[in-house]
Amino acid sequence: MPHLSRYKHMAVLGSLALLSLSSACRSEPSVATEPAPFRAQTLLEDLEQPWALAFLPDQAWLITQKAGELLYVKGKQRIRVAQLPDVAVTGQGGLMDVALHPAFALDGDSNWVYLTFNQAGDDVYGTALGRGRLVVEGNSARLDDWQTLFSLPQKTDSGRHFGSRIAFDDDGHVYFSIGDRGERQRAQDSADAAGSVIRLTLDGGIPEDNPLRNQNNAHPAIYSYGHRNIQGMATHPDSGEIWTHEHGPQGGDELNRIVAGRNYGWPLITYGKEYGTGFSIGEGSEKPGIEPPRHYWVPSIAPSGMAFYRGSAFADWQGDILVGALKHRRLVRLDVEDGRIVGEHRYVAGEDARIRDVRVGPDGLIYVLTDASKGKLIRLAPPA
Which residue intervals define the domain Glucose/Sorbosone dehydrogenase in the entry (predicted)? Predict the structure, then answer.
């Protein structure tokens, strides 16, 4: 399937086509919604605020629901997975991302399922990562041998900015994001895990080569910091690099390539403005020694969910970045060619709805979860 309207949009975006991914790029407000180059099929309905999706090798799905439920769905079966950790549901927090061990097999030793969730203390809350072994028996499913691998040490009563997405590299590490918890200066404190990307071994250990491990007072699990609220994370299929996107305030959503030990600037630099007043935040939009975004959005699209496209169904989209948009209620495709972002495309993904997660399935089709009290799982395929 060809890139629809690529050259028309290159003219609109102007110099954006000349900027490499190593430069900060801006999505112009004039980027418009295009006719959808796919057909949409609703696969599941009546999901209660679904947050994330994972594909199992037995052609089933795992779906998290914010209220603390993990669903195993296969065919007409919809089973609530038992033996989950205690999940606190407050504000933006609840049960969030789900991801499978890189060598996942239902009948092997690597049947680990990783979850991020809001963990309660004494009237305080914080993001946590854990894992359990998925066991499916007939009409029941459960997580055995639950292990909480990491929990935010400095919990607060804030209901904002929990993150939280999970990704893996090819070297035996798991990454996940923690938001600044609505207290922006925490993101600049390397002793505080809030506002950061955390890197662990698959069993929760601190890798010897973590960039801040031997720095005085720094939290040894931090891989990068200066983040506001990352709700999209994916591993580049060729380079193995971790890429993220995060919510800005009023404007300034960012796409970033994560580099070990780097400071990503929040709230010292941002393209966003203060809510309500429109006043500037911090010291501007760039500063020496701080990693700039690879792409950013003004006005905000409120991104959530992220995937690099690989598959045969949309052959011309290889390596493009797919992003869900909560505020703009669209599927966004960043057109990547020869290491450059040369365009941005926005589509209605079956219906005008907030998109919480976007994934590419083993079949090369695109799957999105809509964020609603009666959310849906929608599959996007090439036109018949």
Answer: 47-379
